[in-house]
Every structure is written in C-alpha cells, then in structure tokens.
Amino acid sequence: MDKIKEEILRVHKFRFACKEFDENKKVSKEDLEFILEVGRLSPSSFGFEPWKFLVLENKSLREKILPVTWGVQRQMPSLSYLVVILARKKLDMIYSSDYIKYMVEDVHKIPKDMAELRIERYRKFQESDFKLLDNDRDIFDWAVMQTYIPLANMMTAAAQIGIDTCPIEGFDREKLEQILEKEGVIDREQFGVSCMLAFGYRKEDPKRPKTRKAIEEVVEWIY
Fold it and tell me: Full-prediction pTM beyond 0.85?
C-alpha cells in the first residue's frame, strides 16, 4: 500500500504544464485512446456527462484556430495531439431536454417510473438548489465546472504512463467557437468550448521544482 501511495505522489510531482514538447517523439494513438477512455469513465453530477472531447487532427483547422488560441502558440508546432473539451449548454442540460431523457432511459437504463422521479429530482436541483435556470450561462458554467473532472483524470492518467500535458484556457472563446461552427465541427446552440488539452513528451524537464502552498494552508480539519 505504501508503494502505491508513493507512486501516486511521484506521478503528481512528475506532472507539470508542459509549454514545449519534443517534436521528434510522438504519443501513440493507442495511448491517447487509453487516456480518452479514462476521461469517458469520469464521474459527473447526476451521471449526465455534460461533455464531448474533440481530437483536432486536421492541420488546416489547427492553423485556423491558432490566431485566437494564444495559450497553445508555443505547443502547437510540437504537440502530438490537441483535444478540445466541450461543455453542453442549456439546450441539452435543462431537465426537460431530449438529452436528459436519453441519458436517464437509454444510457442509465432506469425504468420509466423511476426515470420520471430522477428527472423530477434533477428539476428541483436546477430550479431550487443551484438555481441554474435564471439564465442560459448558469447551466453552461455548471457544465464547464464538471468538464474539469475528466480533464484532471486525463492529465493524471497521461502522467502515469509518462506522457506530458498542458491544460489550456488561453483562447478567445467566442472567436474559437465561431471558427469551429463555421467548419461544421460544433453546433453553438448545443456546445461551448470549456478548455483544451495538449499532449506530447516534454522537450526538457522544468527548470524548478513544483511549488505549492503548505498543506496547513490548504487543509483545515473541523472537529
């Protein structure tokens, strides 16, 4: 057990936001598929999986988005894969949507009478508990927060097999979504961009050790 704990900590100390990858060393498709499977298996609120992962292999599309994605300028020439993580919008995530009905009945396979109770509970959650129905952006932001669960899991899984990553929020969301919609990649009524994740192998190790606040500043025990 202690060895497992040591390995987990080693992996998290190994991982860092890689700003430049080794262009001569490429991540295999098999390894990326494994990482994406880890993302797919990630948990979500109510189990509704409000995300989609776009693997941007199209070089022409990468070039088109580059001017509006300043956070990936350094990595783009050398990365192996670029994944855009989408979050679902109100059209899908409102309690009365076809998507929620599909998730409850077809994916979760909940019997119809129980499915209605599940959706009713979800309605109360949206209306009263988190008050997500006041405006369209609230539901989208709630979905975006959940996409960071598979984001973190994929970064950790990558680090466990020696692959480097860089999570990216450095982009003009409006312009990026416009490009993706114009290219027929997304429907902006249904999806918005949450973040991006670059994969590759580090060109060099970080120049300084990982810095974090002391555990006493981060954790408070309430007895």
Answer: yes
Residue 122 pLDDT grade (very low, low, confident, very high; cuts 50, 70, 90): very high
**Chosen CATH of 16-91+144-205 out of 3.40.109.10, 3.40.50.150, 3.10.310.10, 3.90.79.10:** 3.40.109.10
Q: What are phi and psi of 195, to 5 degrees?
A: -165, 180
CA distances from 2 to 8, 137, 162, 219 (A): 10, 44, 21, 22
pLDDT at 136 over 90: no
The whole-number pLDDT of residue 160 equals 97
CA-atom Rg of the chain in angstroms: 19
